[in-house]
Amino acid sequence: MVETLSVLLKNKRIAETLKVRQALLGHSLPLSAYLLKPVQRVLKYHLFLENILKASVETKILSDGDRAIILQALHCMTSQAEKINEEKKRVEHLERVRELQNALQKWCIDEKEDLSKYGDLLLEATFKLAGAKTNRQLFLFEEMLLIVKERNGALICKDYIMCSSLMLNESISPDPLAFQVLSYDNPKIQYIFLASNMDQKRLWMKELKRMMLDHYAVQIPEKTKILMLNLSDNCSKSENLSNQQGFVLNLKGNKKIPKYLEKRRKSIDTNQTFRRSHIRKRSTSGNRNILKAVRFSLA
């Protein structure tokens, strides 16, 4: 509406008419201000409706019909506020990606130099790299985990792992804040990071595993993904989790690659063609096998 008014105001006759009308009505603000105010306040409307409902319970001045209408309006405005907040968050993330793009050095993957092509930026945080004196900044996109080092105010791309080949070991003895990320295509390339606290680690573990499930070779039903993430969250709180991971790694010693990763890598080289054809023929009745495979990948 404001944009339409701006176009109309280019007509001198319309602009003069609105100016005269404003003076006759005694309005201190122009018409554009009155069109903009409702949009600016839309995020507060649901709070206003909540207060009306709360007051109506105490005073009992509303009929059941009026209350139903207000409840419907509350639902509508709450949904609208959520959409606006999501769009605002998306725009902020796009701006952050542009800032990252401008500050990033030594970055180039084929022709996809634009970071926005790797999906939305989901998470970003600074982690300590095991065995190093400096920290690393991790940027988790929908399609990629970007590993960056800050140097003299600039950001240097150290590595990246595509989410389609991302593997995760979330329990590294003896530090409960440590976790390991590896590439499915090349398990010898691996990094061990230490979170600043358990809340940060849980958040990142959940999002990393969600991206792994989203990029799994077989399409997994959304309910199954939620089930797997919830099961994994419960397991992460267990004191015996380190005994379930298949290997123990000393942060100060040599990094040892889990045997199951080496076996998976070898199986890719020898049976890749057969594996792909087998996946295509797998029916929807194989959900039980999918769960086992996903649980194995998340281990």
Automatic annotation (TrEMBL):
The keyword Electron transport does not apply. InterPro entries: DBL_dom_sf, DH_dom, GDS_CDC24_CS, PH-like_dom_sf, PH_domain, PH_PLEKHG1_G2_G3, SOS1_NGEF_PH. Residues 1-87 form the DH domain. This is DH domain-containing protein. Keywords: Coiled coil, Guanine-nucleotide releasing factor, Phosphoprotein. The keyword Cell membrane does not apply. Residues 77-104 form a coiled coil. One of its GO terms (biological process) is intracellular signal transduction. SUPFAM superfamilies: DBL homology domain (DH-domain), PH domain-like. Residues 114-213 form the PH domain. PANTHER family: FI17866P1 (PTHR45924). It comes from the Eukaryota. GO terms for molecular function: guanyl-nucleotide exchange factor activity; small GTPase binding.
